[in-house]
Amino acid sequence: MKQTWPYLLVVGFLLIFVAKAGGKPPGLATGWKAGVARTVITPKPGLWMAGFAVRNRPADGTLHDLWAKALVLEDESGKQAVLVTTDLLGFPQKLSERIRTQLTAKYKLSKAQIILNGSHTHSGPVLQDALTDIYPFESDQVAKIAQYSATLETQIVELVGNALKNREAVTLHAQNGVTRFQVNRRNNNAAVLHRLPELRGPNEYAVPVLKVLNAKGDLKAVTFGYACHPTVLDSYQWSGDYAGFAQLELEKAHPGVTALFFQGAGADQNALPRHTVPLAQQYGRELAAAVERVLAEPMRNLSARLTTAYSEVDLTFAKSPTEADLQAITKSDVPYQKRYAERMLAQLKRGEPFPKSYAYPVQVWQLGEQPLISLGGEVVIEYAIKLKQIFGPDTFVAAYSNDVMGYIPSTTVLREGGYEGDSSQMVYGLPSVWSSTIEATILAEVIKVARQAGLPTP
């Protein structure tokens, strides 16, 4: 007893100190914790599908279920962040705001700590306050869309809560893979693709992979991305397109594992050729194979330090349309463009001014040594290329995050025009094309936010 009492005394003092310090001795790195959860978000047939303005009726079946999935990460200091991935076209601003407000109120998660990413599948549902001019909705369809959106909102808040409950000790590992089925749709004619001797860019073929291992060293979750439009399928059946098939392949190969896909800066990239289920399955297998290769090779082990930063920067519009401009669009042969112009004319007659700018979300996470940049909107591939030139080739870039308000063209695409640079604003109901400063504004804001997150910057 005389030999053991000093040891017991020291242990007692240590336990008291630990309790006062919040349960953790100073300097003791407990490592990462992670929790995952998933929920089916497949609507019933009868709801309109988002994407492809030529669609003329609601969905009539399901190819495979749509999912929302959450990965909660917690570092050694208790700092948390959550990535929510979904088989959706993207989150419109109002829905995103409601979800993030609830996550703040319930779980003390700030906007900086939340990423809501849509895979941008064109085989998912239309959401409330999005694409209002594209489809000839009847009043009953508007009500169905509002009801589905409200249910989705509740599901995602509960999903994050479930992921928080499921936290356990893990290790995180990161690496970029590669696969090459994306094709720059602006610079390659899909109709003659099989005859082209070479494909023109720009392209960025990275497959970012984040591996989550539990305390036993078993795979718990894998998060991966790719920059390419999920527009292989154009039927009336719900599906996650190639990204959905990739997740199914990985979860089949690793029973009990949750696979989460996030969309990159693929606004001007298509999987070509397309339009058949076997092609969507093929691209899904190719993407899953790229992830499997990365998982099987050495990956960078990430230290348990998490920093997050977020801001919203004003992107200005070039100019507001005049009444004459809108009257001219009403003569368009494209139905949604006519509906867009008529709605805008009605707004003019009511004396409601058009917005001159838009609050655009920019977000940076640092997971140990791994930078993750997320941007709102349909971001073209040049942004990913330039962000990797600034922050390094291992940087993960996610677009379609937190708010999908329209296409985000580079300076080059804006100057060249075409759908992504010139006419797509009508799809999203924006008053005008973006001003010529858009690229410089976004890149400067990313650098500013990255500094707040502790990333080395120019």
Automatic annotation (TrEMBL):
Positions of the Neutral/alkaline non-lysosomal ceramidase N-terminal domain: 35-257
Query: What name appears for this protein in its UniProt entry?
Result: Neutral/alkaline non-lysosomal ceramidase N-terminal domain-containing protein
Q: Which organism is it from?
A: Larkinella insperata
